[in-house]
Amino acid sequence: MSHPSSAEARCSECGASLEQGASACWLCHRTLEAESLHQSSSPAGVERKRVGQFSLASVFLVLTLIAVCLGTLKLAPGLGLGVILVATPALVRACIVNAQKKRTGQSLTIGEKLVAFFASTAIVILVGLAGFIAFEIACWGSCAMIAGIEQNPSDHAFWIGASTGVLAGLAIMIWLFWKTRPRGGSKTGR
Fold it and tell me: Number of folded domains in the chain?
């Protein structure tokens, strides 16, 4: 097996070594002529990558995450469900960060992708915790209010409290997800 030399041409999208005179990458099928034409027509040689493409590193990171989620689900179903509930929105958010970075003509390194995922995981956990706190406050507050008004509170107090808590928790979670959404390089900053 031959090892590629440092002077060997590589695909700018997936990093696969390219044969001399190749018109497309053998691995990701990216057209190389269009890439060189686009680079020459873009200002200062800035390369713009297609947002729909992804590298092998991204595929391996996602497959690793799926394997961890499935393994955790098999060993401890309750914990596995929690991992899936946190990892799925974190992965979606990290993919949005990566796509926004690609739109600017740059790409994230593997380390930056991991940092984006773990930052997204922390945001998802904190937003979920804030939603749970809002649920508890609204639920217990409305139940206490109904219990203070009525002499003999019935089952409807529970359902009013639970539905108030769910609405408050969802409202806080949606608002926090909106405030912490990944923002692209917009000129307005908002």
Answer: 1
Q: Can you tell me the distance from the alpha carbon of 157 to that of 163, in angstroms, rounded to the nearest whole number?
A: 10
Q: Is 119 exposed, middle or buried (0-12, 13-18, 19+ CB in 10 A)?
A: middle
Tens digits of per-residue pLDDT, 28-56?
777 776 444 334 344 444 444 454 566 77
Domain that holds residue 138: 49-179
Work out the mean pLDDT of the chain and round it to a whole number: 78
Does this model's pTM top 0.70?
no
Residue 44 belongs to some domain of the structure: no
Report if residue 4 sits inside a domain. no
